[in-house]
Design a protein that fits this description.
By secondary structure, the protein is an alpha/beta fold. It has 19 helices and 30 strands. The strands form nine sheets. A seven-stranded mixed sheet has the order 5-4-17-16-18-19-20, sandwiched between helices. Strands 7-6-8-11-12 form a five-stranded parallel sheet, with helices on both faces. A four-stranded antiparallel sheet has the order 21-22-24-25, with no helix packed on it. The longest helix is centred in the C-terminal third of the chain and has 18 residues. The N terminus is likely disordered. It binds adenosine-5'-monophosphate-propyl ester. The site of adenosine-5'-monophosphate-propyl ester has 22 residues, from helix 11, strand 20, strand 24 and strand 25.
Length: 658
């Protein structure tokens, strides 16, 4: 690793001073750790694992790479994730520290201490046990943002059951697909969720999913009463969370599991096929979420941490359910949306709860910039944000102007802005600045964390020099990496350790480039057919299959178009079975198809634009020419070489949209 000349960063450093006295204090400390991790890799991870986790039976072997890429870490050690996240704090003097400050959609605030949280987790764990749920069983969680969401996930971890959380914005069909793939025996849900002043159904969606077949093993549906809205009740299967909790004692012996026991399965979109169940381990995953809380977020005992992600995504797993609790932090959990009752909600909450570390998505920042331009009363400067000391972003690239606005208007030029790059598969941060060490540059996630050996390679796996764009890879295994794809080890091996790259490099699926002088990384976007819409990962294939399953549709192709606010907008090109619709019909059919995709996958997958043509532009060998469709979607003139395209005229039809 090249030495970093901090003088080069003068302009930004002057705007954003680094913090003093952080966990990794200064560039020399960072470089020393990187070196340590390189020269004594196993010793580096061993020390961290002994220091940060509480083991029931200590491990004797750090890494088993005999069956690469199916790596095992700390394999003969035993522990329990919920013990590490909860019980530990009853012994370290933090029993009565507030674990969660929950703010509901309507502004109502509830708090829970570590002692109370442990009691609730134990009660639910006992109740699940009583219903025959235990080690290795899979439990679906389909809940709103709530204390109950954390209780449900931790209760599963306590008894060694694997949770699979599905974001509340997914449809019955998507929930069903995941439920069948994972082989669930139980579901934990709520009657309804409240978002932006509206009640939205959850339990009825679970009911619908359970009528779709292949879910006979689901014998229990636990229902959290959130709104009291009316729901249907199946007396043999359904039970109220508050009733089963009330019937149980508030202690529960944890199930001591092996370090490699799967902690959870979380589905994410890939470029092909159905969503894949990313499987994470217990020890390796928990280790890295704890360590990154300390290194990246520099968390201290008096911090108030707020990650605005949903527990249905990996960010909510790592930096709401597990990371903050493992290190005994106080965190804010928010039920609602950033624009309700107005776009000042985030700033108002930061002021009210004295949030010191704030972690959100670039899309949220961009939409709040827009809102504050048209309504000065929701501008962050109108709020007392002096409690903030650190700001972070995740999920998608942040454009320098949004980064600068965030730094200036929210952080008042005092708070480092950390652009953290990572993925569902990586479990925790991979490339991110350290607030006391890394001079910041807008638009760059800067440098890999110590222990993470990231590089950029060409299509044959050869490492490229700085300044040359290529494929982002990780050269060595790390403890929090996914272990496999649930039920599909070959998909794991081929997708993440492709033979074309030599079979020993983890392929992130993103393009990246390093600065010639500093070695800083900039992520240039996915190299596959995965879109990033408002920081949510969507497979184009999934949306295409959903559209193609509509009786009106003969063929569909989906691409992303850069969008100022949401990062990428979904644009669908559709060929109907009947003739190309007239302009008047087109709007109606587009609305129908949008609603259809909402039902098939979820509202987050609805195309922003739908365009109709007589046929799909294809090469003579029958491949859809996505490259051209992307240009058309962007509104670019399609003056490229058309000699390979069968039916170029259709591109002009596709240039019009509704
Ligand atoms: O393309 C990258 C983008 O989000 C993808 C991972 O999505 P997901 O698994 O849903 O996890 C998101 C939250 C960790 C990556 O492959 N991505 C994530 N963070 C960044 C990013 N792109 C640019 N900069 C980031 N900081």
């Amino acid at each position: 690793m090249s030495t970093i000349d901090t003088n080069m960063f003068e302009p930004e450093s002057a705007i954003l001073p680094l913090l003093k006295g952080t966990a990794i204090d200064g560039m020399a400390a960072y470089e020393a750790l990187v070196k340590k991790a390189q020269t004594d890799r196993l010793g580096f991870w061993e020390r961290l694992a002994r220091e940060h986790l509480t083991w029931r039976r200590p491990f004797t072997k750090v890494l088993d790479d005999s069956n690469a890429p199916f790596f095992k870490w700390f394999d003969d050690g035993t522990l329990n994730a919920s013990y590490n996240c909860l019980d530990r704090h009853l012994q370290d003097g933090n029993a009565d520290k507030v674990a969660i400050v929950f703010e509901a959609d309507d502004g109502n605030v509830t708090t829970i201490t570590y002692r109370q949280l442990l009691a609730r987790v134990c009660r639910l764990a006992n109740a699940l046990h009583e219903r025959g749920i235990g080690l290795g069983d899979r439990v679906m969680i389909y809940l709103p943002m709530s204390i109950e969401g954390v209780v449900a996930m931790q209760a599963c971890a306590r008894i060694g059951a694997l949770h699979s959380v599905v974001f509340g914005g997914f449809s019955a069909k998507s929930l069903h697909e995941r439920m069948v793939d994972v082989g669930a025996v139980a579901v934990i849900t709520a009657d309804e969720q409240m978002r932006g002043g509206r009640n939205l159904p959850l339990k009825s969606i679970v009911d619908e999913a359970l009528t779709m077949g292949g879910t006979d093993d689901v014998h229990t549906v636990v229902v959290y009463r959130r709104t009291g809205g009316s729901i249907l009740w199946n007396a043999t299967r359904d039970c109220w969370l508050h009733e089963i909790e009330a019937a149980q004692p508030d202690t529960c012996e944890p199930e001591w599991v092996s370090a490699e026991h799967p902690l959870f399965i979380l589905y994410t979109s890939g470029s092909t096929g159905t969503p894949k169940g990313v499987q994470h381990s217990t020890a390796g995953y928990l280790l890295w979420t704890s360590v990154t809380m300390k290194w990246t977020f520099d968390i201290r005992s008096d911090d108030v941490f707020w990650c605005t992600a949903d527990i249905g995504w990996i960010t909510g797993h790592s930096y709401i359910c597990y990371g903050p609790t493992a290190i005994g932090a106080t965190q804010v959990i928010f039920e609602g949306v950033p624009t309700y009752p107005n776009a000042g909600r985030f700033w108002e909450m930061i002021a009210q709860h004295k949030v010191s570390i704030f972690y959100t998505a670039p899309t949220a920042i961009r939409s709040l910039i827009k809102a504050s331009e048209s309504d000065k009363t929701v501008h962050p400067r109108r709020f007392d944000l002096r409690s903030l000391r650190l700001l972070g972003t995740v999920g998608e690239p942040i454009n320098p102007s949004a980064w600068e606005w965030y730094a200036r208007e929210v952080g008042d030029g005092r708070c480092p802005v950390l652009d953290t790059f990572w993925q569902t598969e990586t479990g925790g941060h991979m490339i991110a600045p350290l607030p006391g060490a890394t001079p910041l540059v807008p638009g760059s996630c800067t440098l890999p964390l110590p222990g993470i050996e990231a590089a950029i390679v060409d299509e044959t796996g050869v490492e490229l020099p700085n300044g040359q764009g290529g494929l982002l890879v990780v050269k060595k295994p790390w403890p929090s990496m996914l272990r496999t794809i649930w039920g599909n080890p070959e998909r794991f091996r081929h997708g993440y350790y492709p033979p074309e790259l030599g079979g020993n490099l983890y392929l992130a699926g993103d393009g990246a480039i390093r600065d010639p002088e500093t070695g800083y990384f900039t992520i240039t976007g996915r190299i596959d057919d995965v879109l990033n819409v408002s920081g949510h990962r969507m497979g184009t294939m999934e949306i295409e299959s959903a559209l193609a399953s509509n009786p009106l549709v003969a063929e569909a192709a989906v691409v992303g178009r850069p969008d100022e606010t949401i990062g990428e907008a979904i644009v669908a090109f559709v060929v109907l079975k009947g003739p190309r619709p007239t302009d008047a019909e087109a709007k109606k059919i587009a609305d129908q198809l949008r609603a259809w995709v909402g039902k098939e996958i979820g509202p987050i997958a609805k195309p922003k634009e739908i365009r109709f043509g007589d046929s799909m532009p294809k090469t003579r060998s029958g491949k859809v020419v996505r490259r051209l469709l992307r240009s058309v979607a962007k509104g670019e003139a399609v003056a490229q070489d058309m000699s390979t395209v069968e039916n170029p005229a259709v591109l002009h039809q596709f240039s019009e949209h509704v």
